Amino acid sequence: MFYLGIDVAKAKLDCCLLDMTNGKRSTKVVANSRAGLTDLLGWLGKRHTEPSHVHVALEGTGVYHEMAACGLHDAGLSVSVVNPAQVRAFATGMGVRTKNDMVDSHVLARFAMHAQPMRWSPPAPEARILQALMARREALAQDLQRERNRHEKAEITAPTALVLHSILETIEFLERHLASLQREIDDHIAAHPGLKANLMLLQSIPAVGPQVGRTLLAIMHARHFDSAEQLAAYLGLVPVQRQSGSSIQGPSRLSKAGPPKVRATLYMAAVVAKRYNPHIKALCERLAARGKSTMSILGAAMRKLVHLCFGVLKTRQPYRANYVAIA
To answer: Which residue spans adopt a coiled-coil conformation according to this UniProt entry (predicted)?
Structure first.
């Protein structure tokens, strides 16, 4: 068996191959490009590696790892996209204090060998397109909000007419482009029965509207989750305790390890769900009776909402207020 650790950068891939048949280690640096991947596969072939006998571990680094992960998966290698925090903790446990690209690739290869992380599969093309469209929509929405903030300040500071006209013109352009992009997202979902059916299931849950539904739809189709707990952990909604003996009794808090924009969207949905979703309303009332703080209650509501979303997609049944099994 061979274990290949890849430290991903924007321009290059630092690779470390562990050959378990003889205990040897080989290293190579290739460009983070399709030509670089071809070079890497040729290098692996010269070492008499069968693709099915190579387990690759690389960290999820924004978008820079995606081409390498997809290309190696398509070539028949087993690929794991691992959490950088887990790898860093593993390196600390190994006593590795040096941090550079080649050392990191060796740590990743050792992590793949010892931890045997879950194999990764690329999402379906329609899920990848939806994820890209949603990311672009979020970027445009942020740009639009910034221009609206500038307009608000401009009205107070009384700038020249030319500046005010420029701001209003930009706002009009962004609003038009955002509306056009939203239609493209809706058309894309409508054109794929699987996406459309899942969005309808998600929106059957009280407090899950179109925006929350589309956001979770993109996430749940782009990654594989075995359980609702895994989904909640990915989104940073699991409680983290800080207690030790009698001297440290810190309050629990959300891990906040996942994408903050998604949590912000879920926060507003939880505020609504606290009043209108029967399961979440009952949960919030129980927690309030136990003296929990408002933020703790909303964190639990966000987590419950995610569990409900996972539940309707797994059971393929729309939300039912009297369904005790998912309460």
So the answer is: 127-191
